[in-house]
Amino acid sequence: MQAFELAELITQREWTSNAYLEFLKVPDLSMGLYFIPAGGVDAQSPHTEDEIYYVLSGRAKIKVADENRDVQAGSVVYVAKNVEHRFHSIEQDLTLLVFFAPAEYSNKNE
Asked: CA-to-CA distance for 85 and 28, rounded, in angstroms?
């Protein structure tokens, strides 16, 4: 079994000073914690895997393809592989739990 405590993951991500902390990676799934500060810029590119974001805290908007939506704590957003997406108009620090299936970069060479 692999088990994680959210508070410990948040602290670990803060210590690394990286915006993204991947904490689980197996062939069919990976998970990470993604942080964007208020007023920050989300510079990610489309991924080659399906992705789900679960908003743990904060308030912002996300644009997926041509659709915009408000997100806040408790929001869940699915993004299909290879679809342009990004968070914007980040009003409050945004902390996201991110799920990739299969694991992130598994399909990179397809």
From this structure: 22
Residues 37 and 93 sit within 8 Å (Cβ to Cβ): yes
Distance between CA atoms of residues 79 and 84, nearest Å: 9
CATH number of 20-101: 2.60.120.10, 2.40.160.40, 3.40.50.261, 3.40.50.1460? 2.60.120.10
Cβ contacts of 69 within 8 Å, gap of 6 or more: 61, 62, 77
Residue 88 — φ and ψ, nearest 5°?
-150, 175
Q: Where residue 109 falls among pLDDT bands split at 50, 70, 90? A: low
pLDDT in tens, 32-73: 999 999 999 998 999 999 999 999 999 999 999 999 999 999
Q: What ranges do the domains of the chain cover?
A: 20-101
